[in-house]
Amino acid sequence: MSKCECCQSKEDKLELNKFKCPECGKEGDVVSLRTVKNLVKNSEIIDDEKKYYICKTENCNVVYYSSGSKISQENVKVPVRFKKDANPKILCYCANVTEEDVKQAVGKFGKQDLDKVLAYTNAMSKHNCEMENPTGKCCLGSIKAFIKKL
Q: Domain spanning 88-150 has what CATH number?
């Protein structure tokens, strides 16, 4: 299977500088400014001059942060899958495919047939991860990790 176009975006090649979350103190990953602007309910609070990070700590309410600012789950348009109270737990944001959808597909086709699982769920069909996925990255890794966990 080939990678989707979103895996090849310039934003994916951002340096992986680490910066600690002001809430939980864990290191986050750099996120494209385009991603943050698209997913925050009030994009006017975003400073175009700052670099934003995503906090992947399950029990931390902060989703995005930069020096001097933090954006909580309540201010993000979609439930962030890896946060504690996310409902539903979305694996592919572009096609709105949930963990439950993938679980059903794996039950029907098995863990080994990823292509059939993706086709059945419609996951990875729209290739707009930078704008739809809170991490700004392709969802294939999350889908594979979830299937492996099943």
A: 1.10.10.1100
